[in-house]
Amino acid sequence: MSTALLRLIALLFLLPPPLRHYLSPASGGRASQLNVKHPIILLPGFSCSNLEARLTDEYAPSQPRCGALKGQGWFPLWNDTWAIVNHDYLPCFEEQMSLVFDPILDDYRNIPGVETRVPDFGSTHGITSKNDAGRNEFCLIKLRDELEALGYRDRDTLFGAPYDLRHAPPPPGQPSRVYSDYFARLVELVEHASDKNGGKPAILLGHSFGGRVLLDFVTSTPLPWRQRFIKHLFLVSPTTPTGFMLALTNLASGSSVVQLPTVSSLALRSMWRTFASSLLSMPAPRVFGRRPLVITKERNYSAYDYPDFLAALGFSANGIVPFVKRVLPTMVRIDAPMVPTTYINGVGVQTAEQVMYLDGNFDVATETVYGDGDGTINAASILAFAKEVGTQHRRNNDIPFKFVKIPNATHAGIVIEKHPLARVMAELLEANS
Ligand SMILES: *[C@@H]1O[C@H](CO)[C@@H](O)[C@H](O)[C@H]1NC(C)=O
Ligand SMILES: *[C@@H]1O[C@H](CO)[C@@H](O)[C@H](O)[C@H]1NC(C)=O
Ligand SMILES: *[C@@H]1O[C@H](CO)[C@@H](O)[C@H](O)[C@H]1NC(C)=O
């Protein structure tokens, strides 16, 4: 028996009845029937997309060695994190990865002389772990393997849409050169995937930050286009617009998602804070209210106090502008996707809910209070997002919306571990039937 068939049989036990019936040998179903009904496009989590850089004459390196690759063409800047450490490239990496908010452009850009691009757009094989030592499968690699075992093929029926992790989808009306370009390419990719597959609309799946990018992409497209080209949307543990505590601790002490082996998060903190994406997912006032989220000796900060919180972290008045213009508007409203959607998230995992910095700095939390969630996203945020999207879909001709809570599935584990992954696959195959 082929491995593909064995996998399929293993999956059958977790499938909802209609599909199980459809696929079960007793009903005359064959594995080949499963083969590719609708093309699938994957958007992975935060650290998974690669980034390449090119240094031009305009680049004035802070240290001579950072200019070594000047004029040498494209090279991988964010790909193999061990290479950065082993080549002692860390200060250069930080400088070349950093963004600047340019008040004249009213947009984020690279520092002068650094050009960047995301390679392998369209493929799921350009989505890689940055560190061979572990967390390999976080980047939808197992999910991709499952789909390939069922007959899906890269760039034919299965596609990847890697993105520049440093940028964030802007609210309507705010310019983002990077996102204008990315969304235009994603429109083309969805249309291409559909064309290549007999005009069938595509299934779009995003995990973690990829889910947020996907949500904002879908709501940026005209409704008739969505209805024509999107069969189903899957948001798997998306970093929702309702926000989560970890976004605050990442800003305070350095990111838990952009990491280099042997380098502390704190060492990368100043680079992290230049990213548009670092400001995006703070807990939204509408969900977290006035309860203190960050506690210091001098004062407490709730979801209503972000400008003060950012100032306390050391952001200049100009540094707070992009938060006010580009992030605040995204916190006050949620636009539901208005296409059939399945929202899958873990719950029942210990998740930070309040942090204290009582040492007079933000380098290390002195105490953390935990509550429910998926280890990253707070349960209150997950439930509020589900409720809001569900309500909007119901009011609009009852557009299908399914909310699947998986007990004990962690933010990353949901696409790695056997049981939650099987559930995600089952939902995906049901939408594909
Ligand atoms: C990216 O890193 C992987 C190892 O994680 C390596 O196999 C691959 O060749 C790298 N890509 C480039 C363009 O260097
Ligand atoms: C901050 O919040 C904590 C916990 O709710 C409370 O005990 C403390 O008095 C507050 N501190 C200030 C300065 O408001
Ligand atoms: C979730 O984990 C807790 C603690 O380990 C355990 O008691 C509970 O049975 C688990 N629930 C499920 C549905 O697996």
From TrEMBL:
Classification via Gene3D superfamilies: alpha/beta hydrolase
Span of the signal peptide: 1-21
Organism annotation: Triticum aestivum (Wheat)
Record-linked InterPro entries: AB_hydrolase_fold, LACT/PDAT_acylTrfase
Keywords: Signal
Molecular function via GO: O-acyltransferase activity
Pfam families per the UniProt record, alphabetical: LCAT
SUPFAM superfamilies given in the database record: alpha/beta-Hydrolases (SSF53474)
Protein name: Lecithin-cholesterol acyltransferase-like 1
Key word Cytoplasm present: no
Membrane-crossing segments per the record: none
One BP term from GO: lipid metabolic process
